[in-house]
Design goal:
The chain is mostly helical. It has twelve helices and no strands. Helix 5 packs across helix 6.
Length: 234
């Protein structure tokens, strides 16, 4: 890469990285299980400070008891806490689910609204959660800036910003809007599997030659290969 990259060069490199990651992770998708927009909204809220695998484990019991917003809004706090207890921070998360469900019932007839400006007014729902729901439940393009996405966007030299909203805007200017949701999946999968926060698997990275941060992790192919995970967070 040239010492000074032009704007056009940056756009081309960003889109090339996305294409390579798409080829590397053809099955990339949201790793939270869900059957409808309400379920996705709830499991995304629950996924904070825990793993998708743990959330997926409690999901069947949770939605068997509370299949929709009216049911969850009327839930007994103690029973709801018991179901989501394994996820940690269960009292705060129970409070969030109760308020969220009540707001859906009171404002949107129990339905999840398909607009960002409405979603972010709901208790416990920020832009990251809203974009997850929009992109994966409603096919409305959205960029999900979680810790993985933000880290990789900076490593790739796409932005120097650390504020998620600013990262979202900066990256959104580099790739077509129609690609935003899948771009999010590609970066999150790559961040979970290869481009770790500590000790990234640089020597086993498919976009190494396009990455200005190459060398932050081991570059020896055999050493790097041992760092590659075949699935997301346990």
């Amino acid at each position: 890469m040239p010492a000074v990259e032009t704007r056009t060069g940056l756009v081309r490199r960003a889109r090339k990285i996305d294409r390579v990651l798409a080829e590397t992770y053809p099955d990339a998708r949201c790793e939270l299980d869900f059957a409808n927009p309400f379920e996705l909204l709830v499991v995304t809220v629950l996924s904070a400070q825990t793993t998708d695998k743990r959330v997926n484990a409690v999901r069947p019991t949770l939605f068997a008891s509370y299949p929709d917003a009216p049911a969850m809004a009327a839930a007994e706090r103690e029973r709801l806490e018991a179901i989501i207890g394994p996820l940690g921070f269960f009292r705060a998360k129970t409070e969030s689910l109760l308020k969220l469900s009540q707001a859906l019932v009171e404002r949107y007839d129990g339905q999840v609204p398909p607009r960002l400006e409405d979603l972010v007014t709901l208790p416990g729902v920020g832009r990251k959660t809203a974009n997850v729901v929009l992109g994966n439940a409603f096919d409305v393009p959205g960029i999900t800036v979680d810790t993985h996405f933000g880290r990789l966007a900076r490593r790739f030299g796409w932005t120097d910003e650390t504020d998620p909203v600013k990262v979202e805007r900066a990256v959104g200017e580099l790739v077509p809007k129609k690609d935003w949701t899948m771009l999010s999946h590609h970066l999150i999968w790559h961040g979970r599997r290869r481009c770790h926060a500590r000790n990234p698997a640089c020597g086993a990275c498919p976009v190494a030659r396009l990455c200005p941060a190459y060398g932050e992790g081991p570059t020896d192919p055999e050493v790097a290969a041992k760092l590659v995970k075949t699935e997301g967070r346990a």
